[in-house]
Amino acid sequence: MAKRSDLVESMAIAAAAACLAHCVALPVLVAALPALASVIPIPTSFHIAALIFAVPTTLFALWIGYRHHRRALPLLAGLAGLALLVIAVVVYERTPGEAPVTIAGSLLIVAAHLSNWRLRKQPA
To answer: Using a CB cutoff of 8 Å and minimum separation of 24, what contacts does 105-108 make?
Structure first.
């Protein structure tokens, strides 16, 4: 079970990190090359697909960790991060608020997974 939960945790961390990189790199790229903003729009379906991947992997990995270490903080931080990602897509899509809300959510999720990972490695 530990190997499978490590794999899921790794996938969830990678997804959150990719989301963070996407949200940080894209505005920098768009600011540097304004012409790209109209040439390479990111469709809403991309963000929905990212959520469809991030939500179950994050919930599964953090739940497995919680069952092992019984510390609620990583689970609660992950839930807060997921909530921010959903809010970014539902409320702030294509507005100036989308990137900061998404970045905050991604950072919370990454922190939750790293904390969860450390706690799972400690003896029970």
So the answer is: 105/19, 105/80, 105/81, 106/16, 106/17, 106/19, 106/20, 106/23, 106/81, 107/20, 107/81, 108/77, 108/78, 108/80, 108/81, 108/84
